[in-house]
Amino acid sequence: MTERSFRFILGISLLILLYFHLDIGIYIYIGILLFEGLTNWRIPIIASRMRYGSAYNPQDLSNADCAAIPFDAERVLRLLVAGFLVVTFVLFKEEVWFFPWFIGFMLFMAGMTNICPMVMGLRWLGFR
Predict the structure, then answer these.
(1) How far is 108 from 128, CA to CA, in rounded Å?
(2) pLDDT digits (tens, 9 = 90+) for 55-96
(3) In the chain, which ranges are continuous DSSP H helix?
(4) pTM of the model as a whole
(5) Where are the domains of the chain?
């Protein structure tokens, strides 16, 4: 499983959870994103290791030394999405109801096109 397909799944699942008003599912969604962001045990890497075995190498470490900040941009993306969802869905649900929908559509489009503006910006800032 690639990060692109996982972003597509994240976007679709968030949109479905929002459409059917499944608040418990969104809290679980936020918990999964926080777990992945804090531990760096990402579901695409775990799925690929289960599929291809121990020979799977998820990172090309040739550019790891030139990154200004030794922290993965994908990991920061998960933490930012979880943080934005906590602020907009949990704390200010009625005031900014459109922002979780925006996050879902952006993740969906990032999965469709493999162009994620947030990851591009994070890599521009110096994340791996």
Answers:
(1) 22
(2) 766 665 445 556 688 889 999 999 999 999 999 999 999 999
(3) 3-19, 23-39, 43-52, 73-85, 98-113, 117-125
(4) 0.87
(5) 3-53+68-125
Closest CA to 97 of 26, 10, 34, 36: 26
What residues pair up with 123 in beta bridges, in sequence order? none
Give the contacts of 90 (CB within 8 A, at least 6 positions apart). Answer: 27, 30
Give the bridge partners for 69, in sequence order: 127
Give the count of alpha carbons within 13 A of 56, CB side only: 14
- Tens-place pLDDT, residues 15-53: 999 999 999 999 999 999 999 999 988 888 888 888 887
Number of residues that this document lists for the chain: 128
Cα gap 20→6, rounded to integer Å: 21
User: Which amino acid does the sequence have at 75?
Assistant: R
CA–centroid distance for 109 within its chain: 13
Neighbouring residues of 48: CB distance < 8 A, sequence distance ≥ 6? 1, 56, 58
